[in-house]
Amino acid sequence: QLDPSKLKAFSNAAAGHDGVLCDPSGELLIKPCVDAEIDFYQETLAKYPDFAELMPTYMGTLSLGSPQAPSDTPAPELSQQEKDQARLHGVKIASETAIVLENLEHGFKFPNVLDLKLGSVLYDPATTEPEKAARLDRVAQESTSGSLNFRVAGMKVWNPTKRDFDIYDKFYGREFSAENVSEAYETFFAALFSSDIKGDDAVQLLETILAEVTKARHILEKAQSRMYSASVLIVCEGDTAALNSLLGAVGPSAPSGDERAPTAKELKRAEAEEEEDEEAEPVAFKVKMIDFAHAKWTEDGGRDENTIKGLKNVEQLLDGLIGKFD
Ligand code: ADP
Ligand code: MN
């Protein structure tokens, strides 16, 4: 049971609005959101199970109680600090309702996070005010959103020398062009180029990440959907030693030599142990699609070329990075 009073600020986001929370254990992420995002999660779970596997596990919704100031009262004056925050992240979403998701950073020692925002059209043309549309079109035009249908929305990368994360805010990713955005990938995956990591292990990791993105694209190519400014979120272990041992451990565990079938009693005990074993196995990386505030499945809209083109380019850049290990 989630107690809203025990939630704490989630300060580890790579991008996006403020106001994201996590539970005391850090396993769950609680994100204030619009109803459309909850609807999208629920519809996906019901009708698109393949795509649901590519999203963070959906746990439900949570009422956060205190709503923001009602819309007929004037917005309070912002302090300079609040203005700076808003400039970096975008203001909080005025919403009482939050979505409860698997925290994708949980279980990593130092989670490196890369948020790749998809689309060159970053808003739903049917429902967006002209001013906002024009502003987002300008950002797209001046960044790789316009040319590649994706841009780096934000990232954080563990810096072992500093013993802290290097933070790359939303302005970092806007500076790249189609010609040099591979530099952002190289910065994010810099640890893979270190002498501690075997080239073959690095290639295998990147190929697995690439395959997940391809999986998402293949599903969208067969479906009818629109997802304006959804993201591919890549989380990767930033601790080189931890990453190394995770990459080294390939394949299922060796057979024990004891070929006897387990007794009912043994099976029950194994099951109970599994349930007690709350911590999931650590993984080297996670790749998920996130941010569905402006996403919907449609009956007759055709393929979402806006998003599909972005995924293709995300894949192509990953492929280029893999090529650097030859
Ligand atoms: P928005 O951009 O609308 O504020 P997002 O869904 O993109 O909302 O979330 C903002 C940021 O929060 C993301 O860039 C990511 O770093 C982090 N985030 C979102 N969902 C998760 C999740 N399930 N697990 C971990 N981090 C998440
Ligand atoms: Mn986002």
- Beta-strand level of the residues, as a percent range? 15-25%
Hetero compounds: adenosine-5'-diphosphate, manganese (II) ion
Structural class: alpha+beta
**Total beta-strand segments:** 12
What's the story with the biggest beta sheet? 5 strands, antiparallel
Mean pLDDT: 89
Shape: globular
Structural description of this entry:
The protein is α+β, with helices and mostly antiparallel strands and 326 residues long. It has 2 domains: 91 residues; 181 residues, 2-Layer Sandwich (D-amino Acid Aminotransferase, Chain A, domain 1). 37% of the residues lie in helices and 19% in strands. The strands form 3 sheets. The protein has a 5-stranded antiparallel sheet with strand order 1-2-3-5-4, with helices on one face. The longest helix has 24 residues. About 3% of the residues have low confidence. The site of manganese (II) ion has 5 residues, from loops.
Summarize the topology.
Elements: E1 8-9, E2 21-22, E3 28-32, H1 35-47, H2 49-52, E4 58-63, H3 80-89, E5 97-102, E6 111-118, H4 130-141, H5 144-148, E7 150-159, E8 164-168, H6 170-174, H7 182-188, H8 199-222, E9 225-227, E10 231-237, H9 240-248, H10 264-276, E11 285-290, E12 295-297, H11 305-323
Helix pairs in contact: 8-11
This protein binds adenosine-5'-diphosphate (ADP) and manganese (II) ion.
Adenosine-5'-diphosphate (ADP) is lined by residues 13-17, 20, 29, 31, 56, 101-105, 113, 115, 154, 231, 233, 290-291, 293.
